[in-house]
Structure formats: structure tokens, C-alpha cells
Design a protein that fits this description.
By secondary structure, the protein is of the alpha/beta class. The chain binds iron/sulfur cluster.
Length: about 325
Amino acid sequence: MTSATNILIDKFGRVHNYLRISLTERCNLRCNYCMPEEGIVLRPRAEFMTRSEVIQIAKIFVALGVKKIRLTGGEPLVRKDAKEIIEDLSQLPVELAITTNGILVDTFIETFMACGVKSINVSLDSLKEERFNTITRRNYFSKVISNIRLLMQNNFHVKLNAVIIKGMNDDELVDFIEFSKDQPVHYRFIEFMPFNGNKWDWSKGCSYDEVMADIHAHYGNNIMKIEDAKNDTAKNYRIKNYKGTFAIISSVTNPFCDTCNRLRLTADGKIKNCLFSNSETDLLTALRNRMDITQLIRNNVWDKKASRGGMTTFEDYSNPTLHEQNRAMVAIGG
Ligand code: SF4
């Protein structure tokens, strides 16, 4: 295990410089593939990182080579001191990005601009209002759409995320792509992933191949492969002459773990070295006990599994016993 340099490296030689921080487990939506029907048990505030603890831990990760921080949730913007946390983090030498459901974006747009936040991912699983309301169990469709337009009017780099599920929204792939025709949005189609409580069943999932087959059937030779960025989770494409792009994130059928550079800090201050890892290290308690958490972080990263938290085969990945040991998606932040 290397402890000399300020980089976070695992035993497979992957360098980790991208930290996703979940600010809260609370959300103002109830998306059926993320949040268990009955919601999740909300825990006492004392179990969660305070504003200053978020900054203290983030600073330690930056000292260990983190170059990019993405804020997630639940829904990060529902946290009362989210504005202050964004302002504090914007003082660090990192690229700051946000993943949001878009509902509160209009109340944060000034802060985003003042803090140099340029990249915003917004979840939008349907372009049909009624269906959106069914998926999210809330009716914020027009608010989300108008906030996406607001982001684009202000030249933010907007990525839209849709989890593609058979019988739910797999018939909207062309509509999603047409949404990127005259506006520079990047629509990403995410394979349905297993988490605690989301009743995952791959027969409802749409694989990379199935999605591409549908898109190909409609656009044929007008589909152009565009270069994927280093460490990219998505396979990116553009339709000829379209302003926007689309991409597929295929953790189920085509995982991209070889180049993984991502770590997660949960809202209750635990480090997860993989979205699917069941083992976490409690940094918050150690921090509160005035311990140096640097070695805890290094050890956790070093112990990272090659792929999907050790669920390498599809059989492992499909084993509900393993999923149920992980958290609900809302308590990880994707
Ligand atoms: S499944 Fe885990 S190891 Fe693979 S890309 Fe995602 S976070 Fe990284």
C-alpha cells in the first residue's frame, strides 16, 4: 500500500481523484427506481456531517489528490445550508459539479454562477408530464423543464439522466434524443441498477445493446460515435447535425470499472470506494474523535474491489442478498 504521495491509488493502480459527496438522504421526489415505496427512515441530524465537517473532510480528500467534487443527495439542494456549503467548497482547487432533480435550481442559479459551478446533471426520466409524475410520485414536471431551460439560457453544461426501464420509459428514447436536436443537452440513458429496496429485476432493465438497437432502428447511419473522456462512465454519441448528444451508462451489461476514479462520501460521513461496495469506512466518527482520517481513506481505497464492489459476474450482481446489504440509492447519491 502506498502512503508516500498525495494520490489515492488502489491495488489495481487506479488513481481516485473524483469525489461524490452526498449532502443529505432527504429528497423532494420519490422516484420508484431509487427510493423505496415507504421512503427511508430519516435519522437524527447528529448522525450527519455538519457544514464544517463536509468542508474539513473535503479538504483532506483534496490534499490527497481529489480534483473534482460532485454534490449529490438524496436531493442536495433541499439541504438548508446547501448554498453555504457550495460557497465553501468553491474556495477549494477543484471542479465543482452538482447532480440534482432540478426542482430548486432557479433558487440556486446565482450561487452556481458565483461559485463557478458549470456542470449540472438533472434527472429527467420522462418527457411526458403524467408519466414523470408517476415515476417520481410528485408533480414537478413543468418546474423541472423550465429550470432545465433556465440552465441552458445561462450556458450551463447540462446533462440529463434517464434510467431506462422496460414498460416505463423505454419507448421515449427517440423523444429524449430529439430533445437534444436544437439544444446542447447531453442525454444519458442509464441501465437500471440494483440497490437496497428498489425491487431490482433485470427483466425490466434495458441493456446497452437493446437501447442502441432501438436508436439505430430510427437513426441508422446518422449516429456518430464521439470520443469518450478519460474515466468516462458513458459511451457517447451524436446524431448528425444535432446540437446535443446522447450516451449510455451500462453498469449492468458493460461495466467500466477498469478506469474508475470515483469515490463516494455519504451524508453520514462514510467513505464508499464503489457505488456497489457493502464495506464502508466511518470517517465522521473518527474526525469527531480528533483522529487523522488520512490513513483510513487510503486503506479504504486500497481495498477497493476490481469491479462492482466484488459483484464481478452477472450472477453475483443479480444476487438480491448482495444488493440488500448495500444502501438504498437515495442514501448513496449515485
Ligand atoms: S461499479 Fe464501482 S468500480 Fe465500477 S465504475 Fe462504478 S464505482 Fe467504479
